[in-house]
Amino acid sequence: MSQSDSLPDRVRLILEEGINLYRLHTNAHGRLESTKGSYEKEWVKWEKQLREVLIGDAEHLNSMQVPFESAVKQVLEQLQIIINGEYTPPSTEKRKLGLIVFAAVNLPVTEISSLLDKLVENNPKVKSFLEDKDMEPNLKKAHVTLAHKRSHGVTAVASYGHLLHQNVPVELTALLFTDEMAALEAEVGSVDGEKVIPKNEWPHITIWTGEKIAAKEANRLPQLLLEGKATRIEINPPIIISGTIEFY
């Protein structure tokens, strides 16, 4: 099959998601019907997403050299083999797509560190807050999450596939923090004229979290700010740095 005939990323992802869900279900319930197990809601959600993906990519799938009807028949045959417990995956098989959890803009550590140094130098409040914080663990994996499989669904993550490895500017506009966490507010720019829109309501870079505080908790900072429980330091003028869109 030629490169142009390969399955779109989001089709591969949704199929991998189904296989992973099947494994979870069978590990917990054996051959019990999916509608009767503890993963019932997940199956319903997956089946809905599968239909949406297949309908959305029907034209591409129908244009493949292997007729779509034939491909479906082969998939059904393979599923029957799996159900019968007769399937053994090749040892060399790589399930990269199945391991993808989120899409994000990966950012250079040195530039983030340089920005924070300037903030510390120019703002006593920032200096007082950051001077005793160990930010290295977060800065080493600095990124702006675009979509997360668990929060936004596999198709949302896959929707950034055509932008993979592309450079994109990120504008940093403010630092928000509490006693438990800190993050840089971010505005993601465009790739070749296409605006990159994060699925996260508040795009940001988590730069520090307290002990036993998950990085995802930084999503709460805007709400905590409204409640008067967080501080916001504006970055004026905003700083623009460049990162690459990646899957993780």
UniProtKB/TrEMBL annotation:
Q: Name one GO molecular function term.
A: RNA ligase (ATP) activity
Which GO annotations describe the biological process of this protein?
A: tRNA splicing, via endonucleolytic cleavage and ligation
Pfam families from the entry? tRNA_lig_CPD
Indicate the segments forming the tRNA ligase phosphodiesterase domain, all copies.
90-230
Return the PANTHER family for the record: TRNA LIGASE 1
Q: What is this protein called?
A: tRNA ligase phosphodiesterase domain-containing protein
The organism encoding this protein is: Salix viminalis
